[in-house]
Amino acid sequence: MITGSIVALATPMKVNGDIDWEALRRLVNFHLDNGTDGIVAAGTTGEPTTMSFAEHFDVIRAVVEEVDGRIPVIAGTGANATSEAVELARYASEVGADYCLSVCPYYNKPTQEGLYRHFKAVAEGSKLPVILYNVPGRTASDLYNETVMRLVEVDNIVGLKDATGNLERAEDLIARLKGSDFMLYSGDDGTACDFMLMGGHGDISVTANVAPRAMHDLCVAAVSGDTDRAHQINTRLMPLHTNLGIESNPIPVKWALHRMGLIEPGIRLPLTWLSEKYHSTISEALQLAGLIDD
C-alpha cells in the first residue's frame, strides 16, 4: 500500500510543444530529493489527452527508468474506449510501472453498469494493480460509492482516487471499507487534509508539483492523525491548493513550475499559457508557501 504524497506529475514541454525529456528527468529527481512518496506519470496533469500513443508510452517509460525503483510509479492509463484503456495498462506493465490509474471514461457518459464493466475489463486485461479515478468535473461520468463497492470485489482493483472534493461521500466510503486494504486517495488538494484525517491513505496531488516536501510532511501528519500539524501545514499551502485551479489544470501549475525555474513555458493546445491577469495571484501563493522570494 502506498501512503502519503503522490504527485500528479506535469509533463514539461518546450515552447514549441515538444516534450522536454531532460526537464522531465530533472523533475523526477526533484521529487525523489524532496520526499514525494509516489509519482503518477501521464495522469490528467501530465496532459496525456494531447499526446500520441507513442508519446504517452514514452513518458511512462522515461519516468519509470528515472525513478529506478526508488518510489512507486503509477501510470495514467485511462481512456474513454475500454479497449484503449486495456492497451495502455498492458503497456505500463511491460515498462515496469507499479500501478495503473484508470479514469472514468469521459465524454460518452456510461451508466453505472457500464463503468463497472469497463473497470472490470481493465483489471482483467492488465497485470498491474488498478487504481480507479473518479473526477466527474472533467469526465461528466460519476462513479458512485455503490459501484466502487462492487469493484472492490474485483481481483486486481486495489484503490480509488476520489477527486470529487465531496467529504460526505469520502466519509461514507472510508467507513464502508474500514479494515480493508483497499487504498483511498484524495484527488482534490483543497479537501485532502480532511480526507486523510478521516482515514484516507494519501493525496494524489497537483500542489505537490511545486511543494513536494511540504505535501509529504502534510500527508505524513494527516495519515498519522496529527491534526494540529496537518492543519498548520495545510493552512500555509491553501493558497496554492485554491489558486492552482484558477484556470484549467495543468495551466496554473505549469506556470508556477516555470516561475520557479524548473521548466520552460510549454503547453499544448487546446490549453494555453496562464492568463497574465493571474500571474501575481500564483506568485503570491508561491511566496506564502515559501517557494520563491519575490
Automatic annotation (TrEMBL):
SMART domains (alphabetical): DHDPS
Catalytic activity: L-aspartate 4-semialdehyde + pyruvate = (2S,4S)-4-hydroxy-2,3,4,5-tetrahydrodipicolinate + H2O + H(+)
Pathway membership, UniProt: Amino-acid biosynthesis; L-lysine biosynthesis via DAP pathway; (S)-tetrahydrodipicolinate from L-aspartate: step 3/4
Gene Ontology molecular function, alphabetical: 4-hydroxy-tetrahydrodipicolinate synthase activity
Top enzyme category: lyase
GO terms (BP aspect): diaminopimelate biosynthetic process; lysine biosynthetic process via diaminopimelate
Location(s) in or outside the cell: Cytoplasm
InterPro entries (alphabetical): Aldolase_TIM, DapA, DapA-like, Schiff_base-form_aldolases_AS
Annotated positions for site Part of a proton relay during catalysis: T44, Y107
One of the Pfam families matching this protein, by short name: DHDPS
One cellular component (GO) term of this entry: cytosol
Entry-linked Gene3D superfamilies: Aldolase class I
Catalytic machinery residues: Y133, K161
The keyword Cytoplasm is annotated on this UniProt entry: yes
Keywords in alphabetical order: Amino-acid biosynthesis, Cytoplasm, Diaminopimelate biosynthesis, Lyase, Lysine biosynthesis, Schiff base
Sequence positions that bind pyruvate: T45, I204
EC number, as in UniProt: 4.3.3.7
Membership in a protein family: Belongs to the DapA family.
Function of the molecule: Catalyzes the condensation of (S)-aspartate-beta-semialdehyde [(S)-ASA] and pyruvate to 4-hydroxy-tetrahydrodipicolinate (HTPA).
Database matches in NCBIfam families: dapA
Subunit structure as annotated in this protein's UniProt entry: Homotetramer; dimer of dimers.
The protein, known as: 4-hydroxy-tetrahydrodipicolinate synthase
